[in-house]
Design brief:
This protein has helices at about 5-25, 25-30, 65-70, 100-110, 125, 130, 150-155, 160-170, 180, 230-235, and strands at about 50-55, 80, 115, 140-145, 175, 215-220, 240-245, 250-255, 260-265, 265-270, 285, 290-295, 300. By secondary structure, it is an alpha/beta fold. It is globular, with a radius of gyration of 25 Å.
C-alpha cells in the first residue's frame, strides 16, 4: 500500500471512532454536564456579600437597618460596630474614649445577641491579630457617621482593613451611614481634615476610600445640606468615576455591579459618560425601588416594575 493510502485509511478510522464515541449512550449527558464558563467578576461592587450604604439621618420606617440585620444573619449573626468616624482625638490631642454600652445599645435593642464594638486610634494596633480577630467570623460590619478621614487614619492598610474585606468575601454585609457611607467608595470625598466643605482634599493620605465599591465616589446628606451639585467638580476631574449622592434616610443596597434604592428620598447619579442637555443638571435622580447597573450605567428597573422604555431614564432635575 502506498504511503498516501495509509494516511487516508488512518484518517477514516479516526473519524469513525470519534463518531462512534459521540453517538454512544451517555455521550450527550457528558456534553450537557460540562462546566459552564465562569461568570465575570463584578467591576464595581463585591463579588460576594452586600453593601448597605446610607446617606445619613434617621432611618425609622424605611426598613434599611432591618435589611442590614437580615443580611448579617439576623439576631444570631455576628455584628461588629465601628464608631471610629466619630473622632480619634479631642482638640487638645487626648484620645477619645468610646464606651461599648452606649455604642451598642440601639443594636442590642433590636435583638442582636452577638454584637461587639471595634475601635482604635492607632493603626499599629489595628494591624495586630489580637485586635482584628473579632472580624474573623463576623457576618456584618457597620461604620457609624462622623468624619471619614478618622476611619482612614485608624485602619487603612492594616490587617483590620483586610479583614473588613474578608467579611464580604465570606458573603457577609458591610454597612454604614454618612461618613460610614463615603468610606465605602473608591475616591474619598470630603476627606480633608480642615472641614467637610472641601470636596477634593490635597492630603494624599485622605483621598482614598476603602473600595468596598470600586470606581465610585459617594457623597451623603445631599438633600438637607443642599449638596446636590457638589459631586459635579469631582466627576469632571475624574470622569472615570461614577458619582453617587445619597439623601438622608435613603440607601443603596449593592450586590455585584447593581444597586437597589431604598428609603425615604432620592439618589443622584453623576455619570460623565452620558450626554446632558444644556438646561439639565449633569446627573439624574433615582427613587426607592429603582434598580441601577453601575457597569452598564443604566437603570435596570423602575419602582413600578417596568423596565426603561424609549425616552425614560433621562437625566432629570431634582425636586427640592
Amino acid at each position: 500500500m502506498r504511503p498516501m493510502d495509509s494516511r487516508k485509511l488512518l484518517l477514516l478510522v479516526t473519524t469513525a471512532l470519534l463518531l462512534t464515541i459521540s453517538l454512544a449512550p451517555g455521550a450527550a449527558a457528558l456534553r450537557q454536564t460540562a462546566p459552564a464558563p465562569a461568570a465575570a467578576a463584578p467591576e464595581y461592587g463585591p463579588a460576594k456579600g452586600t453593601l448597605v450604604i446610607v446617606g445619613g439621618g434617621a432611618t425609622e420606617g424605611t426598613g434599611i437597618v432591618e435589611k442590614f440585620i437580615d443580611l448579617g444573619g439576623g439576631a444570631n449573626g455576628k455584628f461588629v460596630i465601628v464608631p471610629t468616624a466619630g473622632g480619634n482625638r479631642n482638640a487638645d490631642g487626648s484620645l477619645i474614649k468610646y464606651d461599648e454600652e452606649p455604642t451598642l445599645r440601639t443594636w442590642k435593642a433590636r435583638g442582636l445577641k452577638n454584637v461587639a464594638m471595634l475601635h482604635t486610634a492607632d493603626p499599629k494596633v489595628a494591624d495586630t491579630e489580637e485586635f482584628a480577630k473579632v472580624l474573623r467570623d463576623a457576618t456584618a460590619v457597620w461604620f457609624n457617621g462622623g468624619r471619614q478621614w478618622n476611619i482612614v487614619d485608624s485602619y487603612a492598610g492594616t490587617l483590620t482593613y483586610r479583614e473588613f474585606h474578608k467579611v464580604l468575601e465570606r458573603g457577609g454585609v458591610v454597612g454604614g451611614s454618612s461618613a460610614g457611607a463615603t468610606i465605602q467608595g473608591d475616591y474619598l470625598v470630603r476627606g480633608d481634615t480642615s472641614g467637610p466643605n472641601v470636596m477634593m482634599t490635597e492630603e494624599k493620605n485622605h483621598q482614598k476610600g476603602f473600595e468596598f465599591v470600586r470606581k465610585v465616589a459617594i457623597d451623603q446628606h445631599i438633600n438637607a445640606r443642599l449638596r446636590w451639585d457638589d459631586l459635579i467638580p469631582v466627576i469632571r476631574k475624574y470622569p472615570n468615576l461614577l458619582g453617587i449622592g445619597l439623601s438622608e434616610g435613603t440607601a443603596i443596597i449593592v450586590k455585584g455591579d447593581t444597586f437597589d434604592v431604598m428609603g425615604k428620598w432620592k439618589v443622584a447619579v453623576h455619570d460623565n459618560t452620558r450626554l446632558y442637555q444644556p438646561w439639565e443638571k449633569p446627573y439624574y435622580v433615582l427613587g426607592a425601588g429603582d434598580v441601577y447597573d453601575m457597569k452598564a450605567r443604566k437603570v435596570v428597573k423602575y419602582a413600578d416594575g417596568t423596565t426603561p422604555a424609549r425616552g425614560r431614564g433621562l437625566p432629570v432635575m431634582p425636586r427640592r
